[in-house]
Amino acid sequence: MTEPQGSAPLPSLAVIGIGTDIIECERIDQMIEKHGQTFLTRVYTTDEIAYCKQRKAANQHYAGRWAAKEAVLKALGTGWAHGIQWTDVEVVNQVGGKPEIVLSGVAEKISRDMGIAQMMISISHCKGYATAYATAVGEAPSPKGSAE
Question: Which residue ranges form the domains of the chain, and what is each CATH number?
């Protein structure tokens, strides 16, 4: 691939981690029925709750965000260890609906320490299932032995 004339070279990006998750939407329904607001505020941010409540099939949107959070932690390689909270991983939608991940707290620190520049996410759901795929990207490390 050639670079446009007069532009600076773009940094090489590397995949630092990937993660995927799938969940039954009914499982999230059951958790909401059983634990109510306690479950919602433990797992989802205020903005995520507001977004999902506005949707016709709210359970599918909650499940999609659940799957996204799980996929992100798999991409980080941490799972729920190291003091990460569910709300440290937030799904926000850009204008037009594209989902974006915003990290905070311990998840943000771990991401920064790993050199992750962006956490990309794809979420899909239907009546029965929700799935998500996360890709953590950052600057490619310099080859060993090269001058810095």
Answer: 13-139 (3.90.470.20)
